[in-house]
């Protein structure tokens, strides 16, 4: 048997490798009894017993229920101890903060949120986020925090956990979000673009289905999360999927990033608000005009609600947005060849009105082979989706990417990540 010190210093012996494999096999449900573990790994009964007993001692596995008998003694299931640790997820949006706590299986056990403007800057925003998290920890006491994931509404360098010139996050460029959470919760932290968390959420919701997927979020900004074989494609610097700043033909609209003609400056929520206000100033009537005349500000949510009520201006604006978004998605389809495209975000909240225009442009402009098996659907618009996605991201990083690094410690520690 490998000694504790051998495991602690990370010697990747055959024993350590097989022990890691068995723990992950039980965790993912690949095998849940000792006979199943033996059949899949090819290890003898005595070796399987030794490895499983060691995993019990280390606190990763425990006895589960008894399985059905095939004539002899019923086999005892082995289970992963998902209650040993908890995961924190913090989803920062342009106009809200949403936080949750999940177990190691990714099940969100509690959550809360508050309206908040990300433009208030990193110090105030993270202070509020941590206040919400601390409240959750207080009302759901239990196992220690094993990991934190943070979603931010802008480009993020995944390796450093720092936003990179995020257009809708003034004051956040290069801010060390990861260290702020690691110092507060003494747990490894991963920071990613918020739409990648949504893509992970779809992966969880579609368990067992084809995981070549694009999640496109059309909200205050526009972005896409790219899933290839179940893993997020971030690119060399975390900029993959940032379609909000591709150029729209024949547009000279000024974008918040400082360039002109960006998709976000034409089709995002804030762009539609500007277009609605300009149309009203020119004398266009209707529901939005009445709201404006009453002294009320117009939001992207107001535009989608007005379109649902048949407002002509809102309907026209959303259809125009969907057409140019569809053109950009078509380019992604030709390059990435997904099996599923999920459309989410407040601007797409009118359902089929928006989706029909997107579908039409994608199928018009994409290669026949790329669209042969393509499905384009609306997001379920579940507010818990980024929290489930953030928990899935944490589990991927803990158990698929870094597990051998901290396995012998029995829990992830910051010393093993820096």
From TrEMBL:
GO terms for molecular function: kinase activity. InterPro entries: ATPase_NBD, ROK, ROK_cs, WH-like_DNA-bd_sf, WH_DNA-bd_sf. It comes from the Bacteria. Keywords: Kinase, Transferase. Coiled coil: none annotated. Belongs to the ROK (NagC/XylR) family. This is Sugar kinase.
């Amino acid at each position: 048997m490998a000694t504790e010190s051998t495991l602690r210093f990370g010697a990747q012996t055959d024993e350590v490798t097989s022990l890691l494999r068995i723990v992950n096999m039980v965790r993912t449900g690949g095998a849940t009894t000792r006979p199943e573990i033996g059949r899949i790994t090819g290890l003898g009964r005595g070796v399987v017993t030794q490895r499983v007993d060691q995993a019990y001692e280390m606190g990763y596995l425990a006895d589960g229920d008894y399985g059905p008998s095939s004539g002899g003694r019923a086999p005892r299931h082995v289970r992963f101890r998902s209650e040993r640790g908890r995961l924190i997820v913090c989803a920062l949006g342009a106009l809200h903060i949403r936080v949750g706590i999940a177990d190691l299986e990714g099940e969100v056990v509690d959550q809360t949120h508050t309206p908040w403007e990300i433009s208030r800057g990193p110090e105030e925003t993270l202070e509020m986020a941590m206040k919400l998290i601390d409240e959750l920890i207080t009302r759901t006491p239990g196992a220690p925090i094993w990991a934190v994931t943070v979603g931010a509404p802008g480009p993020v360098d995944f390796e450093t956990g720092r936003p990179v010139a995020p257009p809708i996050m003034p004051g956040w460029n290069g801010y060390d979000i990861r260290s702020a959470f690691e110092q507060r919760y003494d747990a490894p932290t991963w920071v990613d673009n918020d739409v990648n968390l949504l893509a992970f959420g779809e992966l969880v919701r579609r368990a067992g289905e084809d995981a070549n997927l694009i999640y496109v979020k059309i909200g205050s900004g526009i972005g896409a999360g790219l899933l290839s074989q179940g893993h997020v494609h971030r690119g060399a610097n975390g900029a993959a999927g940032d379609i909000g700043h591709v150029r729209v033909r024949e547009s000279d609209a000024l974008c918040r990033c400082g360039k002109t003609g960006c998709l976000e400056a034409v089709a995002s929520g804030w762009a539609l608000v500007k277009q609605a206000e300009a149309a009203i100033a020119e004398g266009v009537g209707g529901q939005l005009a009445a709201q404006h005349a009453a002294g009320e500000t117009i939001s992207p949510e107001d535009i989608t609600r007005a379109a649902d009520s048949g407002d002509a201006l809102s309907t026209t604006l959303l259809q125009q947005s969907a057409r140019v978004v569809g053109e950009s998605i078509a380019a992604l389809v030709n390059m990435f060849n997904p099996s599923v495209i999920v459309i989410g975000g407040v601007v797409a909240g009118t359902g089929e009105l928006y989706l029909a225009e997107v579908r039409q442009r994608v199928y018009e402009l994409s290669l026949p082979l790329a669209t042969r098996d393509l499905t384009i659907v609306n997001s379920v618009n579940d507010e818990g989706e980024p929290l489930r996605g953030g928990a899935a991201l944490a589990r991927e990083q803990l158990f698929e990417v870094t597990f051998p690094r901290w396995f012998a410690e029995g829990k992830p520690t910051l010393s093993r990540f820096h």
